[in-house]
Amino acid sequence: GLALSDRVIRVESNGNTIVFELNDSQAARELYEQLPLSIEVEDYSTNEKIFYPPEKLDTSDSPLAKAGAGTLAYYAPWGDVVMFYGDYNENPSLYELGQIVSGAELVSGMSGTISITVTD
């Protein structure tokens, strides 16, 4: 399949672009295959923005999320993708999908409908 560095996604919100590099898990591949998406982003707690992809992701081989702010994660019980802009507590149902490459300072300001696309 694709190498890690080949699976890069762009999240656009309010004219800003945030770039994430996905890991090589099945869940990350399944998210990638659902793109492009135009989708509502929601605030959750004080450290994350979340959205609900149309299809649930298979987390069978996904690493647990442990990397702190800048992590792109998936919370399996709710089926939501989480963009962390602050530290978080580890959770056995929270899986890492990737890491932020650029635009980390923009995540906390995301609102409304975001556009998620594949980079060439």
**Number of continuous helical runs:** 1
Low-confidence stretches: none
Helix/strand-derived category reads mainly beta
The largest sheet, given as strand count, sense and whether it forms a barrel, is: 9 strands, antiparallel
Question: Which sequence of SSEs, written as H and E, runs from N to C?
Answer: EEHEEEEEEE
Mean pLDDT: 94
Q: Approximately how much helix is present in the residues?
A: under 10%
What does this protein look like?
With 120 residues, this protein is mainly β. It has one helix and nine strands; from the N terminus they run E-E-H-E-E-E-E-E-E-E. The protein has one helix at residues 26-33, and strands spanning 8-13, 16-22, 37-40, 42-44, 48-51, 71-75, 80-84, 94-102, 113-118. The chain has a nine-stranded antiparallel beta sheet with strand order 3-9-1-2-8-6-7-5-4. The protein is globular and about 35 Å long. The mean pLDDT is 94.
Relevant terms:
about 120 residues; mainly beta; nine-stranded antiparallel β-sheet; globular
Concise overview:
The protein is mainly β and 120 residues long.
Q: Any chance you could write out the topology, listing elements then pairs?
A:
Layout: E1 8-13, E2 16-22, H1 26-33, E3 37-40, E4 42-44, E5 48-51, E6 71-75, E7 80-84, E8 94-102, E9 113-118
